[in-house]
Amino acid sequence: MARPNPDLTLKTQRAFAEGRFAACLKAARAAIKANGAQPVLLTLAGLSCANLGQHSEALRFFTQLVKTSPNDPAARQNRIQALLSTGDTKRALTEVEAALARWPDMPALLRLRINACLAAEDLAAARTAVDAAISVTPQDAVLHGLRAQIALDNRDNAAALDSLETAVTLAPNNPDLRLQYAEYLLEHANPDQAGDQIETGLQAFPDHIGLCLLQARLYGAIGQPQMASTAYARILAQIPTHPIALNGMAYTADAQAAALLLEPLKSAADAEKRGSPLHVLLTFALARAERTVGAPEAAKTLASGNRLAARAMPYDAKAEVAEHREMLDLTDAMTPVTASCRGPVPVFVVGLIRSGTSLCEQVMAAHPQITGFGELTQMGNAVRSALRDDTQAHDLAATYLSALPALPTDATAFVDKMPENFRFIGPILRAFPNAVVIEMQRDPRDVALSMWDSLFPTTAHAYANDFAWMAQHMNHYARVMADWRAAFGDRIHAMRYSELVTDLNGTSHRLADLCGVPWDSAMLNPQDVNRPVLTASSQQVRAPVHTRSLGRWQGHTEQLAPLLAGLDRTLWPEL
To answer: Per the confidence metrics, is the pTM higher than 0.85?
Structure first.
């Protein structure tokens, strides 16, 4: 064996302190060979491997470390973290519980237990674990933020809000917690409070990327594109290739600004792995900028973006059919609520995405007695919980209402315009005897073109990236709506997009009647409504109602051929 060389240990420590992890690993191996498997060397070697992404090798060093130092809890922590990094969740859970049996109140181990439960996708266990950790360190604001995220994943908005308020109170100068709180407020229809949280955070941390991004998103949602562009520009001044900021700029830029974005967008897209989420995002953004400046290649770029998105997120038509069967069974099993409901009338606007649901809601929200909540996820969450827990209709209603944002005291009705709620019409009408369901109907060919122009980066809308898939989904949608009409008849009210934009006076009177309020002339100017719109329609609803989108499909019949071939004419007789 070579003579011990203490300088190698010092060299290893110095390299790690300087963040030179490859050099540290090389020096650690040499030092272990010369000086033996000392705990400090095994620790530095394992941590260097972890920082280099060599998690299996890190696990090997930390396993040896535990054998060398069996009574050191830090050694156990490192091995458990390595197990999680290599995907061995089951063993990580076993070992973290064993370690906690010896060191029950150690915060680092309690955090590892939370991470292990999350990795195992056991939200109930994760919630128990985070509560246990908070009981040991109740002033740990980050733990409260983590508890909020777990509560959201458990669809418990009340617990999430309580935890976020606690987190921000405990750590008012933590910008990440301030951001998490502001995101929650914005997503739950509290834009004014969200704006206050963003401003407070930016006062202390003016260059915080997350807060700047959320501020830009809020400006876009409330119809201030120039302010949004300014916020995105602040980010790009720090990180010129920031993909989210480049994307945001592409959707708020005028022709002059869009021309300056073309090369940065191309370069940023080329720097991402082809087909990755960011590459797809930047490809759509490039198409948008090209269209803004009138570049002839815009259509080709958009087609490329849709092809890439379709490969990344295949459409599962069978899953949609299976879900509908579940909804029919759930509806049949529910005893309808018959007692009259107190409080504002719940109005659900459903339809295909891009069918005009945002405009319909905007017209209603212009009325002083109607509150528009935008696209809420609460009903989908409540129905899926009902499927899991065998919930009855009155409990479904209570769960949904308890998760809603606060309503103005003078509100007579509120609007939930989540298009995807078409899937849940049966349970909705079982739970709410006074619910109003408005189905927006628009020419599926115009809907398809609008889908094609927009990126929906979720698997729920995977069909939107392929015209043949769109046809499958539209046929499924039509069958679902036919089933609900057969069951509930005139409780579902059809509203044609073409009528809404050509006869706003007549349709707004009808919408007021459905909501149980006297008509108000403000409904003729929905573009003046000062409320955030967080959907792809955020800019369109800021313009006066127009008919320019009617019949747009007529210039794109060749492009729409797969859609036209796939649409079932018995379901779409108007074609």
So the answer is: no
